[in-house]
Amino acid sequence: xxxxVLFSTFAxxxxxxxxxxxxxxxxxxxxxxxxxxxxxxxxxxxxISSHAGSVPTSDTLLSDIHGRDATLIxxxxxxxxxxxxxxxxxxxxxxxGRMSSQKTSNNDSCRDLSGRRLSTIKTAKRLxxxxxxxxxxxxxxxxxxxxxxxxxxxxxxxxxxxxxxxAGKKHRFDDxxxxxxxxxxxxxxxxxxxxxxxxxxxx
Length: 203
Hints:
- Belongs to the SDE2 family.
- It is found in: Cytoplasm; Nucleus.
- Keywords: Cell cycle, Coiled coil, Cytoplasm, mRNA processing, mRNA splicing, Nucleus.
- This protein has helices at residues 29-36, 62-66, 88-101, 118-132, 134-160, 176-202; strands at residues 3-8, 16-20, 46-49, 72-79.
- The protein is of the alpha+beta class.
């Protein structure tokens, strides 16, 4: 009595079949397959498993898996996955630590229970505070402007040499020669304008 074993494979290999005795060991199946299909790669590259994914031990008989009366058995021929050096778990933990350390406290794009964005609420609050302090701001600007004018008046008084001049009072101009020259210039301008008007009226 023989048992037919079907091996479902992957591209480019088709489904393989093998007729063996029920007393055949599981570890001997691949060598028997290689005898029938010479183009199969070495056993280090492929392995045989059940459709559930389990791999029986090498001494397990086919009859121990499906019973002595089983005439058809289906198995899988799959490639081996080469393992790395390990340490994948520690890498994940390190990446998680870096991600947790980069958490941001900026939640302006979130919304409150009313559906408003937190950034809008913060902006409205800042604007209300700005409007509430407007009187104090104007008062401070006026005081700064007044202090600047007083400083400028003191500099003008110091530059003129009049140490008795008090800031905020009017200054008297005592240059009589300059005043006389300015009056003459004004009178000459008025005379010239009057002469021009008379000339225009006669023509």
